[in-house]
Design a protein that fits this description.
With 136 residues, this protein is of the alpha/beta class. The protein has one domain: Glutaredoxin (3-Layer(aba) Sandwich), CATH 3.40.30.10. It has four helices and four strands, in the order E-H-E-H-H-E-E-H. A four-stranded mixed beta sheet has the order 1-3-2-4, with helices on both faces. The longest helix has 18 residues. It comes from Crypturellus soui. It holds the Pfam family Thioredoxin_7. Keywords: Signal. Belongs to the AGR family. One of its GO terms (cellular component) is endoplasmic reticulum.
């Protein structure tokens, strides 16, 4: 059963599965943003709050991205290039390529963002959007 991921932003439309996310990304020519998290993880909770409170992130998430929230690991190894940890945020472009080049600030967990990293996440969201325009 699909549960709407609460707390990330009330106006975000979420796809239900990774497969649907890939389909929608290709169809709409928007990047897919995959957020891996677990409910009982304090780092995820802190990230969720910062994510929800950031207007610029909310606007981009609503308008420019296909959004997927995963609370379990996917079988796609491309989504865990440096291990399975939460929270992590990854981008997949409409050509269905996982963008291993869009990473956060931490070399030991490449796709982790902390609450204070929202400006960095905004930059990476913009980068994901720019890459579509330049590459496709």
């Amino acid at each position: 059963p699909f549960v709407i991921p609460l707390g990330w932003g009330d106006d975000i439309t979420w796809v239900q599965t990774y497969e649907e996310g890939l389909y929608q990304a290709k169809k709409s020519n928007k990047p897919l943003m995959v957020i891996h998290h677990l409910e009982n993880c304090q780092y995820c909770q802190a990230l969720k709050k910062a994510f929800a409170e950031n207007e610029e992130i909310q606007e981009m998430a609503q308008n420019n991205f296909i959004m997927l929230n995963l609370m379990h690991e996917t079988t796609d190894k491309n989504l865990s290039p440096d291990g399975q940890y939460v929270p992590r945020i990854m981008f997949v472009d409409p050509s269905l390529t996982v963008r291993a080049d869009i990473t956060g600030r931490y070399s030991n967990r490449l796709y982790t963002y902390e609450p204070q990293d929202m400006p960095f996440l905004i930059e990476n969201m913009k980068k994901a959007l720019r890459l579509i325009q330049t590459e496709l």
